[in-house]
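not sure who needs this but someone in the group chat was asking about Translation initiation factor eIF 4e-like domain-containing protein from Lentinula detonsa so here u go. i didnt clean anything up, its just raw.
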Amino acid sequence: MAKANEDTYPDGSYKYFWTPTSDIPLDDFLSKYKPSMVENDGTKPWIWVSKGGKTSSSVTAVDELTALEESSQILKDITNQIENIKNDSSIPLRSNKKTGAKSKKEVREELQRDAQGKFREIAQKHNYLCGKWLMFASGEKVDLIWSSLATSLISGPLASTDAFCAKVATTPRNANPNHQHVLCLYLPDVYDKNAVLKVMKILLRNHGFSLSGVKSDLYTLLGIDSKHPSGIPSTIWKNKDLMDDTEMKTLKDAYFVDLKEGKTANAQSTSQIDDASDKKPADVLTLPINKSKPKKKQKDIFASDDEEDDEEQQRRAELAQKKKATATSTKRSNTSDEDSEHEQEKPKRKASRRA
């Protein structure tokens, strides 16, 4: 079992915890307390950012304790059964279709699924439903990723979701060069698949994050991780449980295309981002094209087509007369042909420049 509840909010004296009522603006808070620069001496393991107000499902201390006690007993029983399976010679290593015998692996997985179902029932009975999306970031990228996540939660696409809080691990004193920082984005009910999926799409499409699944706070409190002897999966939702690989790749690719084109979508709501995807490129491209159009004489919108033809003929006649006055008689014919060709080419060039 975990020694302490890592998901418990810090008290008001913890300076690495930001809410909308904090004295410092969020941008300044993120610049001042960067996870790559804050060293964990045992007293500051996390940097937190919260929407404020509702912080989690309304679980009471009594319900939390009861849920923990019930789940702990189940976990203990399952862990013992899993261990016994290893030493049970009556359970074959491979399944047998003829006899219907299940393999050790199949028996273990059946027990693990049964335990997961029981944990869910306990969580729902005691309203202990809170949990988080898990992400990891290297020391080189963690500041940027954390800032993007926190800003999105407060004033960006994530602000319109059920997500209410985020945290990032600070840097251990003796961190190795390949140290990974864990980031958590909290939801009040991780068994609400639609709410979880909505957040997932934003994390992929609007942030391009790499996700590691959704973990229940109850699992954290029980100490269930990837190395737990029970073998129970540490997350209640794996990425593939919510979305296929093709859709995930499509969403992330779209984010990086926007990033390459210089679009800034993180501070907008999901609907605004969809609109920007449709409208922004046209706005950006129209401006320089209009500026590059060659200037031309303003047309009189009330002039007739005949009047415009007369003006054009007069202009050409004056131009031809000037050239005839300066050209020799032997070049008049050639000059006239060249002028005619020149006049025919001009509109084409203008049309080309306007395209």
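also Residues 265-310, 328-355 have pLDDT under 50 and may be disordered. if thats useful
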